[in-house]
């Protein structure tokens, strides 16, 4: 009798804690997948134009608006600004802060990293201006 009185609330607590952690984990995986996808999009843009251009900055600005974060919160590391010769590998690493929140309570802030890779297919001949990441 006493064991049922003790175990019932404890079991509900465990189920509730598991559900909260599962929801938070799914949210984090969703954001990480978005960061990974954006890193690959920036790497593809760099591969097309042989370096980091305004098009890559526009991709990051649109990504920041969709994710409702400031562009200054995104850390961008690229293998080279440009021009990158044909056939050379390109890598991009994005780091975006992710806030775990339960209502108004902030559980913690974690950096989600996405890595994109591509190969330069730029043969030259176009008037392309390379810029530094924002």
The residue fraction in helices comes out at: 40-55%
Radius of gyration, in angstroms, nearest whole number? 21 Å
Structural class: alpha+beta
Q: Treating each run of at least 4 consecutive H or I residues as one helix, how many helices? A: 2
- N to C succession of SSEs: HHEEE
User: Could you describe the largest sheet, including whether it forms a barrel?
Assistant: 3 strands, antiparallel
Give the strand order, joined by hyphens, for the main sheet: 1-2-3
The counted number of beta strands is 3
Q: What's the number of domains?
A: 1
Measured by DSSP, the beta-strand proportion falls in: 15-25%
The overall pLDDT average reads: 87
- Alpha carbon gap, first and last residue: 64 Å
Query: Which blocks of ≥5 consecutive residues have pLDDT under 50?
Result: none
